[in-house]
Amino acid sequence: MILGYKVLAVVPARGGSKGIPLKNLCEIDGRSLVARVGDVVSAVSEIDRAVVSTDHPTIAKVAEAAGIAAPFMRPHAISGDRIGDYEVLVHALEATERIDRRRYDIIVMLQPTSPLRTPAQVSAAIRMVAEGGWDSVWSVSPTDSKYHPLKQLTVVGEKLGYYDPDGTKIIARQQLEPVYHRNGAAYAMTRECLLVQKTIMGSKSGALIVEGEQVSIDTERDLVRAEMMLLRQTK
Predict the structure, then answer these.
(1) Which strands make up the sheet holding 7-12, listed edge to edge?
(2) What is the pTM of this model?
(3) 161 with 82: CB under 8 angstroms?
(4) Could you state, in order of their start, the residue ranges of all structural domains in the chain?
(5) pLDDT (tens digit, 9 = 90+) per residue, 68-99?
(6) Over 164-214, what HEC string results?
(7) Distances in Å between the alpha carbon of 55 and those of 14, 60, 62, 137, 160?
(8) Dist. CA 193–CA 215, nearest whole Å
(9) How many alpha carbons lie under 13 Å from residue 167 in its C-beta half-sphere?
(10) What dotted CATH number matches 7-142+179-234?
(11) How many other β-carbons are positioned within 10 Å of the β-carbon of residue 216?
(12) pLDDT tens profile 138-187
């Protein structure tokens, strides 16, 4: 709890994955991605309750062993790879409130595929929502100017073009306005943002800028890269 607000952490971890089978159970340095979320949750004092949203019994079992409750199973209707975070979070919030007979004021989504997050980053996102009056706060990382949107190209057939026509005006990187990308470390939002505005990015959305390395797990190569980064951090 923070400033009287009750905080619910939701860990979305479905069983299906086209890139890596049962990706959320993959291990980094001997600890599964789901269990690593449990390690973080246990160190964030603002979190009152943490639940996993999964359709897979083994993931539910691993989550519970790591201190993340599994009081419900995710329905098949919202377990596909084309279901957005919004639908999953609304179901998890409403199901948990019904089971607990308690209202949660702030929801923080912690995806297992971002294993380099720290408790301090999660805490900071929650605190920004509670103390700053934001509808939502996303953790983001600075995007290298080499990958700036105005430098992106399209290829149609064999024809090359700029994704954004304004890219033709860029001569030096100093002309580029800094841009950021979501890194998955934390998404925090108010209950009203989710249920009234019906979005995970509210009309007043804040950015928690995270410096340093982050990785989102999509491939086997990402797992290897994340483990190398983790080992560097712990040296």
Answers:
(1) 49-53, 7-12, 106-109, 180-190, 136-142, 205-209
(2) 0.93
(3) no
(4) 7-142+179-234, 144-177
(5) 999 999 999 999 888 899 999 999 999 999 99
(6) CHHHHHCCCHHHCCCCEEEEEEEEEEEHHHHHCCCCCCCCCEEEEECCCCC
(7) 5, 8, 13, 27, 43
(8) 27
(9) 16
(10) 3.90.550.10
(11) 16
(12) 999 999 999 999 999 999 999 999 999 999 999 888 899 999 999 999 99
Note whether 126 and 162 are within 8 A (CB): no
Question: For residue 2, what are its two tokens?
Answer: 């923070």
**Neighbour tally for 6: CB within 10 Å:** 18
pLDDT at res. 235: 63
Q: Give whole-number Cα distances, 190 to 49, 70, 107, in Å.
A: 15, 22, 6
Distance CA 234, CA 24 (A): 22
**Are the beta carbons of 59 and 15 closer than 8 angstroms?**
yes
Q: Give the H/E segment covering residue 218.
A: none
- Looking up tokens 């560097």 gives 232
Tokens of 223: 């797992």
Evaluate whether 99 touches 75 at the Cβ level (below 8 Å): no
Q: 10: helix, coil or strand?
A: strand
How many residues comprise the chain?
Answer: 235
- Which tokens in the block code for residue 12? 């979305």
